[in-house]
Design a protein that fits this description.
Largest interface: A-B, 54 and 64 residues
Shape of chain A: flat
Oligomer: heterodimer
Number of strands of chain A: 0
Strand content of chain A: under 5%
Number of domains of chain B: 1
Radius of gyration of chain A: 26 Å
Distance between the termini of chain A: 71 Å
Shape of chain B: globular
Strand content of chain B: under 5%
Structural class of chain B: mainly alpha
Helix content of chain A: over 70%
Chain lengths: 142, 221
């Protein structure tokens, strides 16, 4: 599709791109600076990482907005196209929560004497397994 | 801003009655977008598996200690210094390609050629930086099977994910070179439009977008 742009539109689009570049640069510098300052303030225990991590995630999403919106030009596309591209990423919300939750649960299991390992070993000791019903955490299943 | 994004109601319905492209983009550009959506899910799966394994580990590597070296400044402790430069190079490379797209809209062949060339240089510089970083890490004991800074899984995930991203950068540079040569030979000038530059540009910005999240997962969090 050939586009014909007048000089005015061209100039405003070029300056919009450079503005986005400046924002991306500033955000990246602030992120790295925050990491370094945090590292020095909370050298002992790392401090309330949740706060810093939330900032990193918000800052990264902001960078993503500038790249997708301005560089990939999606701010200027039709509404329908924008929706078909962006709506599927809503699945990522479930994806992230479910899998990080599961990861934390694995760590829990390891901490509590690793339930997974005991159950995996069970078939190898099958004759003894019946004698030691108390291996099961929940006796009421019998 | 395009005015058609603001018109709602009947005109939106008219868009879907046939005879024209309701998204007002060409087939090729639309398919590039959908490819990028699927590629975004591939990268999401990799990064989320990284998160899952990290959450399941009692300890993890501290990025400020793993990534603290610079070329030519061997032995100095500069946390996140080199990766900041890499990030900036990739952002700049992306900007150069946007400029090439804009010059293409104006049918300015010399401009497209110039900005594509700078974009390719940026991509190649990023790959060079990554090669140095990988070599440095491997020489200091972080490999697929061991990692002096924490769980071995860190090394494995780092090389897998930055490698997969790096391969995207590598193929992006190759594609950019092809577009650069075509533009320089006047293929698009004769065709009457520079849409190929736009399509390849979308892919190139996507590579930059993925780096934002690789940077987040491995270097910041």
């Amino acid at each position: 599709m050939a586009h014909t742009y007048d000089m005015e539109t061209y100039k405003s689009q070029v300056s919009a791109v450079y503005r986005a570049t400046v924002w991306l640069t500033i955000i990246t510098i602030v992120e790295v600076a925050a990491a370094l300052v945090w590292m020095n303030i909370f050298a002992e225990d790392g401090g309330p990482r949740m706060l810093l991590n939330s900032f990193f995630i918000v800052a990264s999403l902001l960078k993503a907005y500038f790249i997708v919106g301005e560089f990939m030009h999606i701010r200027y596309e039709t509404r329908a196209l924008t929706i078909t591209i962006l709506a599927p990423t809503a699945f990522l919300i479930w994806f992230i929560i479910a899998f990080l939750w599961e990861g934390a649960e694995w760590l829990n299991n390891k901490d509590e004497g690793n339930i997974i390992q005991i159950e995996n070993k069970a078939p190898a000791h099958h004759p003894a397994h019946d004698d030691h019903g108390h291996d099961h955490k929940d006796g009421s299943q019998h | 801003m395009a005015t058609e994004t603001l018109t709602v109601g009947t005109s939106v319905q008219e868009d879907w009655k046939g005879g024209k492209s309701p998204f007002s983009v060409s087939y090729g550009k639309l398919m590039m977008w959908y490819f990028l959506v699927s590629d975004a899910f591939t990268f999401s799966a990799l990064l989320i598996s990284y998160g899952t394994i990290r959450f399941s580990s009692a300890t993890w590597a501290d990025p400020n200690k793993v990534f603290n070296s610079m070329p030519f400044l061997e032995g100095m402790d500069i946390p996140l210094g080199f990766v900041s430069i890499m990030t900036f190079i990739l952002i700049l490379s992306s900007v150069f390609v946007v400029r090439a797209v804009q010059e293409g809209h104006r049918m300015n062949q010399a401009g497209v050629v110039k900005w594509m060339f700078l974009g390719i240089l940026g991509g190649a510089a990023f790959l060079g930086c990554q090669a140095w970083e990988w070599t440095h890490l491997i020489n200091h004991g972080t490999t697929l099977f061991q990692n002096p800074h924490g769980p071995p899984a860190f090394g494995q995930l780092f090389f897998l994910i930055t490698g997969f991203h790096g391969f995207h950068v590598f193929s992006g540079v190759l594609i950019n070179v092809i577009i650069f040569v075509q533009a320089a030979r006047g293929v698009y000038q004769r065709r009457g439009h520079y849409e190929m530059v736009e399509k390849v540009g979308l892919y190139w910005h996507f590579v930059d977008l993925v780096w934002v999240f690789v940077f987040l997962a491995f270097y910041l969090l």
